[in-house]
Amino acid sequence: MIRKTFESDIQQVKDEVLLLGSMVEHAIIGSVDALKKRDIKAAEKIIAEDKEINKKRFAIENQLMILIATQQPMAHDLRLLASTMEIISELERMGDYAKGIANINVRMGDEKLLKPLIDVPRMAQKGADMLHRALTAFVQEDVATAQALPIEDDEVDALYNQIYRELMIFVIEDPKNIERANWLLWVAHNLERFSDRVTNICERTIFIATGEFGEIKSSDDEFWKNQKK
Amino acid sequence: MNTPNTLPYPQGNAFYSTLRKRYLTATIWQSLFLGSLLIAIIVLMALIYNVIDGAFGYIAYEYKNSPSEFTATAPNELTKEELLVILKDNLSRGAYNKLDEEQTMETRSQSDLLNLFFERLVRLDTKQTWSMTESLSKGAEIQAEVAEKYPDAVLEFRSWLTPQFLTAPMSSRAEFAGVRTAVLGSLWLVGIAIAFALPIGTGAAIYLQEYAPKNWFTSIVQTNINNLAGVPSIVYGMLGLAVFVRVMESFTSGAMFGVTDSNGRTILSAGLTMGILVLPLIIINAQEAIKAVPDSLRQAAFGVGATRWQTIWHHVLPNALPGIMTGSILALSRALGETAPLIVVGASTFISLDPDGPFSKFTALPIQIYQWTTRAQSEFHAIAASAIIVLLILLLTLNATAILLRNRFQRRW
Amino acid sequence: MENTNYAIETNNLSIHYGNFTAVKGVNMKVERQKITAIIGPSGCGKSTLLRAFNRMNDFVPSCHVTGELLLDNQNLYGKNVDPVEVRRKIGMVFQKPNPFPKSIYENIAWGARINGFKGKMDELVEQSLRSAALWDEVKDKLQQSAYALSGGQQQRLCIARTIAIQPEIILMDEPASALDPISTLRIEELMQELKKNYTILIVTHNMQQAARASDYTAMMMIDDQRAGGVIEFDDTKAIFTRPKDKRTEDYVTGRFG
C-alpha cells in the first residue's frame, strides 16, 4: 500500500462515523424508552446529548474537508469522502428526530399516554437496527446489504400504518383524544422518517462502492400510494 | 473550410508557391554544405594519394660490387657471425672502428649487419626512382628507358615502407635509412612531454575549476591560458631554447647528475618544451572535462558531509578522467607532429644512435621527414613519404586510443 | 526546557547575493520529528532558504547570510562552525536523483566512510536501505550500478544515503519533482515513516504535495523589493482550509498573480 497514511486517515473517519451512528442509535432508542416510561429527565438528557451529536458531525465534517483539501482524493476516495459528508448530515438529522421525540415527551408534561406503547418501541428498535447494519455495510462497502436494507423499511412503514389506523380509531371514538393521538402520531412519523434516512445512507454506500447513483426504493411513495387506497 | 480569407497568411496556391520557394532555398543550402564536405574529402584523398604515391614505385639500381665477390651464399641467408667476419675482413680498420664506436658490432642485429654489408661493401647505387603512378601507368616505357640508359641496372618495383624501414637506424643512403631512431626520439619526446604536462595541467585545471574564486585575476589567467593555446609553436621553441637549453643547461644536459658528454640540446629540453607547448591544451581540455562533471554529483558529495578535497578526489577526478585522458592524447598528437620548436631547441638532423635516456641527443619523425624532403635525390623523397605514413599511423593510433578510452569510460548521467 | 520541541530555529535569517537580498527576515521554528513544508511561487527563494539550512549556499560566490540559524542553541553561521560538520548533521536530498556513479552499496558506504564510520558497513547499508523502503528491491543487486535503478528507486537510494550518516535533520529540495506520481507517493509515504526518527524540511512547488505530506507549512512570497519572505507559517491543515493571509489563500486556491 503506497498511501498508508491516507488509508489510516480514511479508516479513522469511518470509525468516527460509526461512533456518530451509535450516538444516534442510542438517542433514538433512549428517546422512545423515555417516552414509554414518561421519564422527562431522561428526555431532557437526550435533548442535551443532541448537541454532542451535532458537534461530532461538525468535527467529522472538518476532518473530511481537511482530507479533501490536503489529500486530493480521486475516484473511489473522492466518492467516499463526499458521500461521507452526506451521510453524517443524514445522521445529524436522524439525531434530530430523536430530539423531536424527546421534545414531545417534555411538552406532554403530566399527560398520560393515549395507549401503552407497543409498536412505537418496535419501530424504534427496527430503525436503530437498520441504522446499525447500514453503517456496518457502509464501513465494509457491502453492496448486497445496502441493497437489501431499504426493503426492510417496509416493515417500519407497515408498523407506521398500523399505528396511524389505531390512533384514528381513538380519535373517532372520542375527539378529545385528538391532541394525545397527535403527539403519538408525530412520534411515529419521526420514527418512519428515521428509517427512510437509513435508505439514503444505503444509497450512498452503493454509490461509494459502484459509482452508480440511484434511488433504491422510495418508501415515501409506497406510503402515499397506500393512503390513496 | 470555414477559415476566413482575411487571415494574414497566404492561402491555397499562394501558400504552395511560398512553400516551393522555401524548399528551393533549403535545397541550395544543403548542396552548398555537401559541396564543402566533398572538397574536404577530395583534399584529404589527395593528401593520402600524394604520400602513398611517393612511398611505392620502381627503382633502378646497380651494384658497385657484386655480392658474390664477398660470399658464396645468398646474402639474405648469411648468419650474424658470417656477416661480422665478412665486414671485418673487407672494411677498412678505420671505418670498422667507427661503426663499432657508434654501436658495438657484436650487439647489432643480423638485419642491421646485412644493411651494412649492402651499404658499405656491395654498395648499391640507385640510378633513378619513379613514383607509383608513373610506375603503374608507364611500366613499359620505364623498362625501355632503363635498358637503354643503365644497361647493368636492376629494375624492381619497391615498397619503401618495409619492416626494415621501421627498424633500421638513420643512414646517409636512402635505401638503407630507417626511422627507428626518429620514432624512438618522438616517443621519448612525447613521453617526457606527457610526464611533465599531464600532472601540472590537470592540477592547474582542478585549481581553476574547483578552487579559484571568480575574480578579475582568475579571469585574466583563464584568458591567458586560452591565448597561449593559440601561440605559434616556434615561440615555444624560442622559450625552450632560452630556458631549458641555456638557463637550465646543467639540469637538462644531465651535468647535475654526472652526465658529461652532452650539452643542453637534449631530448629532455625538447620534451619539456613540448610539454609547455601542450600545457595550455591539456589545461583547457581538463577544465572542460571537469566542467562536464555534473554539479549534482558535487552537491551529492557535499550533502553527505564530504570536504572539497574528498569530493574532488573521489568523484570529480574519476569522472573527469576519461575526458582528461582523451584531451591529453589529442594534445600529444599535436606534439608528435610539431617540427619548428624542435629545430630551435636543436634536434639533430643526422643521428644514427638510438636515444637511451633523457640526456641523449635526439631526432624526431617530423624532423627526419623535413630533412629528407630537403634532399635533392628522389629516393629521399620516397622515404620521406614512407616516414609520413609512419607518422600518420602513429597519429591515428593515438587518436583511436583517445576514442577508445572515451567510449570505454564514458559515463551516462 | 521549552525549546526542546524545536529541531532548528531561524532568527531573522536573511540571505543576500551581493547587494541583492533574496530572502529576508525569516523567523521559523521547525518542530522536531515533524515534516515542515516550504511552499510558494517560483523565485520566492524557497530553495535558497532550504539550502541555507545546511550551508549549501556557501558554494555560491557572493552569497552571504545574516541573522541566526540555531541548532541546539548554536548558531550554524557562527565563526567557529565548520560547514562540513553542519552538512553531516543536516543531510540533504536533491531535486533530481543524484546517486554517485558507483554501486548501490558504495553509494551508502561512501558517505559513512568519509565521515569516519567505525561500525559494520554491511549492517549500516542494509539498515539504511530498509529505512528507505528500498532493501527488498535491491538486496540481490547491491553491487550493481545505482544508475540501473528507476528514478524513484534512485531517489530513495539518495534518501538511504542521507540517513546512513544519521543526520538530525533531512532537507529535501523538491525530492519528487522529477518522478512519476506513484514514485512521488512512495517518497511521501517514506517521509511519514522517516519522521518518526528525523525532522524533515521539504521544499516543494507542488502544493498538493505539501498538503498531503506535511505537518506544518511555511508560505513564502516575494515583496516589492523582490526579496522572499515567510508570510504565513502554520499547521498544514490550517493553511489549506482556512489560511489567514489573503496571499496564501490566493496561492493555495490557484488564484495567485
Brief description of this entry?
The complex is a heterotrimer of chains A (229), B (413) and C (257). Chain A has 229 residues and is an all-alpha fold.
Descriptive report:
The complex is a heterotrimer of chains A (229), B (413) and C (257). Chain A is mostly helical and 229 residues long. Helices cover 86% and strands 0% of the residues of chain A. In chain A, helix 4 (119-140) packs antiparallel against helix 5. Chain A is elongated, with a radius of gyration of 19 Å. Chain B is mainly alpha-helical. Helix content of chain B is 67%, strand content 5%. Chain B is built from 17 helices and 3 strands. Chain B has helices at residues 12-55, 80-90, 93-102, 110-122, 132-137, 139-149, 163-167, 180-211, 216-228, 233-247, 249-252, 267-291, 295-303, 308-337, 340-345, 365-373, 378-409, and strands spanning 56-63, 124-129, 154-159. In chain C, strands 6-7-8-3-9-10 form a 6-stranded mixed β-sheet, sandwiched between helices. Chain C has 10 helices and 10 strands. In chain C, strand 9 (216-222) and strand 10 (228-235) form a beta hairpin. Chains B and C meet through helix 13 and helix 14 of B and helix 2, strand 6, helix 3 and helix 6 of C.
**Radius of gyration of chain A, Cα only, in angstroms?**
19 Å
The major β-sheet of chain C equals: 6 strands, mixed
Top-tier CATH class of chain A:
Mainly Alpha
The CATH topology of chain A is Methane Monooxygenase Hydroxylase, Chain G, domain 1
Task: Outline the fold blueprint.
The complex is a heterotrimer of chains A (229), B (413) and C (257).
Chain A: H1 4-37, H2 40-71, H3 75-108, H4 119-140, H5 143-173, H6 178-210, H7 219-228
Helix pairs in contact in A: 1-2, 1-3, 1-4, 2-3, 3-6, 4-5, 4-6, 5-6
Chain B: H1 12-55, E1 56-63, H2 80-90, H3 93-102, H4 110-122, E2 124-129, H5 132-137, H6 139-149, E3 154-159, H7 163-167, H8 180-211, H9 216-228, H10 233-247, H11 249-252, H12 267-291, H13 295-303, H14 308-337, H15 340-345, H16 365-373, H17 378-409
Antiparallel strand pairs in B: 1-2, 1-3
Helix pairs in contact in B: 1-17, 2-4, 8-12, 8-14, 8-16, 10-12, 12-14, 13-14, 14-17, 16-17
Chain C: E1 6-17, E2 20-31, E3 35-39, H1 46-53, E4 63-71, E5 74-75, H2 83-89, E6 90-93, H3 104-114, H4 121-131, H5 135-138, H6 151-164, E7 169-173, H7 181-194, E8 199-203, H8 207-213, E9 216-222, E10 228-235, H9 236-241, H10 246-252
Parallel strand pairs in C: 3-8, 3-9, 6-7, 7-8
Antiparallel strand pairs in C: 1-2, 1-4, 4-5, 9-10
